[in-house]
Amino acid sequence: MFFVGYFLAALVVLAGCGTESNGARMVAAPEDTIPPVGAEPGVQSFPRNELMGKFDPLRHSDFVPVGRPFADRPGMLLRREAFEAFREMWEAARQDSVSLKIISSTRTFAQQKIIWERKWARLAADTPDPGARALKILEYSAMPGASRHHWGTDIDLNDLNNPSFEPGGVHSKVYDWMQKNAYRFGFCQPYTPKGAERPHGYNEEKWHWSYQPIAAPMLRQYARDIEDNQIVGFLGAETAGQIGIVGHYVLGINAVCKQ
Ligand SMILES: [Zn+2]
After folding, report:
1. How many CA atoms lie within 13 A of 208 on its CB side?
2. Three-state SS at 98
3. Does domain 61-258 match CATH 3.40.190.10?
4. How far apart are the CA of 178 and the centre of ligand 1, in A?
5. What residues sit around ligand 1, an ion, with C-beta below 5 angstroms?
6. pLDDT in tens, 17-45
7. pTM over 0.90, yes/no
């Protein structure tokens, strides 16, 4: 009943202005209170702007600062529940003499746009075809609006380099420990090696981990609410449809992380 009331109230407001805001979320906008069609009963619903990183996590009451010693620098944010789970995991790892260090966490659409467009410009001469250029960037970087880092549930740990986590690498103990223990704290690795079970999506990232209790329902909602033609607002966005960003990249993850 709570949502029904808000739904009706929001409909009246939307009917009045006839547009949907895509701007940064300063306060709860009317459309933010509309539960999406098909939302899972008992599961928190997330506004579309939030799924696409078009909000200010600094002003969002579900986000908390991370800081040292959990991160390598101040200024990072995560959803409260994800950070609490990480702290427990961090402490358990520490007791096993394993040092987990967050080097990237929540990123907004605007921040991802800077990363994407820098690569877009750098590859312009060598890869002039827009589709090929986007695919090249997508080996490791998400399109703005389609990154799991928008969600406040995903982190990069220790290093952005797979060999560092492999036998003989400086963080091989970190990866071994995470593979054995991360699931106990709700974390999973979305970008496992590509192959028959994961034919599409980003290349393997041994450093990227996701807090599944929130990220899995967010992913299902993303799949229901967002289509390729809504991934717009940056250089090369016109390639989103031909590449199939939602189907092949947002959903192209380790099946374990979808549960
Ligand atoms: Zn990452």
Report:
1. 22
2. coil
3. no
4. 15
5. 156, 208
6. 333 333 333 444 444 444 455 556 566 78
7. no
